[in-house]
Design goal:
CATH topology of the largest domain: Rossmann fold
Number of helices: 11
Shape: globular
Largest sheet: 8 strands, mixed
Distance between the termini: 55 Å
CATH architecture of the largest domain: 3-Layer(aba) Sandwich
Helix content: 10-25%
Radius of gyration: 24 Å
Number of domains: 3
CATH class of the largest domain: Alpha Beta
Strand content: 35-45%
Length: 477
């Protein structure tokens, strides 16, 4: 964190080299800088502290020193400091934040929230990011992911929480200008556009048509909702039907599984799925337990990977087959990336119901994943509820590698050599075992690409990836 002097063109550091800055906020009068962070010495902590820097006096003050909270948001509202934070006690790393007021170096609960802050609605058709919160007068406005969509909420200093606007899609950025509220967003099956929102009348107006021509002469399937209800929860998902769908004919189908796992599918445009629908496949996808948008308990699969989430996905697949008998059950395929890749690996180790599979940027072995991923050493311990040395069997039991000798399904591997989130050795391990076993398999190694290959990879690499997956399924359909 630095101050740059425009006249002298000099940088002045505000923190030492061992300090990691996380969130910064400048006061409205531009006299005070607030920031969060921690000293990076020893084992990294998951909690943060809060500081303020007086720009005139050039002095820093410690505002919050308690090491009990992970701080996910810092907002200045009418001179008061609102903090979005979680103590991670009940649901671990993925526990949703509540809102606090910082006073006298203590966080005092302002509002219990327990829902997801920000936007976790997935798509492969947006790049970069924008604001997901802003302060207007005496209120904080913020985006939240609820079920399969995003909503705009507000919170005041008395703890009054209000749902301001339900957006049936993905709010990717918010801005306030000239007394008007604007979204950059994905709505229905359109690509990103700008929208003007009137909170009083609850009306939205699309202002731009930047991407209309791209899809003007294309078939775009409309998602058909499918739900599976149980005594404890509801799994919601969708089906995309191919062009000129005829219920009297038989079609191959692809189940697509999202990453995270704490993200969600929504009803927004997803290029890879629309491509497969245009290639004659029925495509289906869902939000099993582990997904975002339904609170902490629904998202919590720590120590349960491959159990309740697997049951939800298989139950959803069963429901789709019942509702759409046009699906040829001998020609159903499965794919997914990151957590979706983990689940693809897990599925083919536990059932032969899929004709072929494509696993992307996946996890296959929690033991070797620990300490090698840029997500942090703490992630595997949190998600598996175990330590690789002290609870080896627990991590191994949740690893698809344990079940590799049961795999008979033809399996394609898609992985990038600069994927530091799920290192490529995760693919190499499982590929080697099933290759030796004689299972039809192929490893496509993308040089110079990252974990973001399917979303923001180079165009030629993204085309190659989608071509490889589609060709793999085509040869078995």
């Amino acid at each position: 964190l630095f101050i740059y002097n425009i006249s002298s063109k000099e940088y002045t550091p505000l923190v030492d080299n061992n300090f990691s800055v996380e969130i910064t906020r400048l006061s409205d009068d531009k006299k005070t800088l607030y920031y969060t962070g921690q000293q990076m010495t020893g084992v990294r902590s998951l909690t943060s502290q809060i500081y303020k820097y007086d720009l005139a006096k050039r002095s820093a003050e410690h505002l919050f020193e308690n090491n009990k909270f992970a701080i996910n948001g810092l907002f200045i509202v009418s001179g008061e400091i609102i903090v979005a934070a979680t103590d991670m006690k009940d649901f671990g790393l993925n526990q949703n934040s509540d809102f606090y007021i910082l006073k006298n170096k203590k966080l005092n609960l302002l509002k219990t929230y327990g829902q997801a802050l920000g936007n976790s609605v997935g798509t492969d058709c947006k790049l970069g990011g924008s604001k997901n919160s802003l302060v207007l007068k005496d209120k904080l406005y913020f985006i939240s992911t609820i079920d399969d969509h995003t909503e705009l909420n507000s919170l005041d200093l008395k703890g009054n929480l209000q749902m301001e606007y339900v957006f049936d899609g993905s709010i990717d950025g918010i801005e306030f200008s000239n007394n008007q509220l604007y979204f950059s967003a994905l709505h229905k099956q359109k690509l990103q556009e700008l929208y003007q929102i009137d909170l009083t009348s609850q009306k939205q107006v699309q202002l731009s048509n930047f991407n209309r021509k791209v899809l003007s002469k294309k078939y775009v399937a409309v998602p058909k909702e499918v739900t599976v209800k149980s005594l404890t929860h509801i799994v919601k998902g969708w089906v995309l039907l191919p062009k000129d769908y005829d219920s009297t004919k038989k079609y191959p189908a692809i189940m697509d599984i999202h990453g995270g796992p704490k993200t969600v599918y929504g009803k927004v445009f997803y290029h890879e799925m629309q491509y497969w629908a245009n290639e004659g496949y029925i495509v289906f996808f869902a939000n099993p337990r582990g997904s975002d948008g339904k609170g902490n308990e629904f998202a919590d699969i720590r120590g349960k990977y491959g159990t309740i989430d697997y049951d939800d996905l298989m139950g959803f697949a069963d429901q789709v087959m019942k509702k759409y008998p046009a699906i040829d059950q001998s020609r159903v395929f499965v794919t997914g990336g990151s957590y979706g890749g983990f689940m693809t690996n897990w599925i083919v180790g536990h059932t032969n119901r899929f004709k072929a599979a494509a696993t992307q940027r996946s996890i296959s072995n929690w033991l070797s994943f620990h300490g090698t991923s840029d997500i942090g050493f703490y992630f595997s311990k949190d998600q598996t509820s175990g330590h690789p040395n002290l609870d080896t069997d627990l991590l191994w039991n949740q690893s698809p590698m344990k079940y590799a000798m049961s795999i008979e399904t033809p399996l394609l591997f898609i992985h990038s050599d600069q994927d530091y989130r799920c290192p490529i050795e995760q693919a190499m391990q499982l590929f080697t075992i099933i290759k030796e076993k004689g299972v039809p398999t192929k490893l496509v190694w993308f040089k110079g690409e990252t974990h973001e290959l399917s979303r923001s990879g180079k165009p030629q690499a993204r085309i190659k990836r989608l071509t490889e997956i589609t060709s793999w399924f085509d040869q078995y359909k």
